[in-house]
């Protein structure tokens, strides 16, 4: 029933920008913390950013200033704006959702979207 569908990935040159979107269905979107993760080949999945409300979104320090997370509850959509992209940003990007405010485990995951940063 619950589905998270990412879009917006693709090929981009270093220094370019992409905006990823994740459309959620089958859940009460406004009550869930939404997050973006990424996983590069041979590496662990890492949390990039998360947001429950527009107040105090979390952004990983290493991408702070380049990546911005936001959400539109009316559209059941969470976004990840990525600027000044680097080859090191190449990865599969996933959105995820969790209800709990005490657990760090995310309940639902999208299928992922590939982001490739290359000349």
What does this molecule look like?
The chain is mostly beta strands. It is built from no helices and eleven strands. It has strands at 3-7, 10-12, 18-25, 33-39, 46-51, 58-59, 67-72, 77-82, 91-98, 108-109, 113-117. Strands 2, 4, 5, 6, 9, 10 and 11 form a seven-stranded mixed sheet that branches. Strand 7 (67-72) and strand 8 (77-82) form a beta hairpin. The chain is globular. The termini are far apart. The mean pLDDT is 96.
Which structural traits does this protein have?
119 residues, mainly beta, seven-stranded mixed β-sheet, four-stranded antiparallel β-sheet, globular
- Approximately how much beta-strand content do the residues carry? over 45%
Order of helices and strands: EEEEEEEEEEE
Shape: globular
Largest sheet: 7 strands, mixed
- Mean pLDDT across all amino acids: 96
Count every helix, treating DSSP H or I runs of 4 or more residues as helices. 0
Helix content: under 10%
Low-confidence stretches: none
- Please report the total strand number as a whole number: 11
* SS class: mainly beta
- C-alpha Rg, in Å? 13 Å
């Amino acid at each position: 029933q619950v589905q998270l569908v990412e879009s917006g990935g693709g090929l981009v040159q270093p220094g370019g920008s992409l905006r990823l979107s994740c459309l959620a269905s089958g859940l009460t979107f406004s009550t869930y913390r939404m997050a973006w993760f990424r996983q590069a080949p041979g590496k662990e999945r890492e949390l990039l950013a998360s947001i429950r409300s527009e107040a105090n979104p979390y952004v990983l320090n290493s991408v702070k200033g380049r990546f911005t997370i936001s959400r539109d509850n009316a559209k059941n959509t969470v976004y990840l704006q990525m600027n000044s992209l680097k080859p090191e940003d190449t990865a599969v990007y996933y959105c995820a959702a969790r209800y709990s405010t005490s657990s760090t485990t995310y309940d639902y995951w999208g299928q992922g979207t590939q982001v490739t940063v290359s000349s």
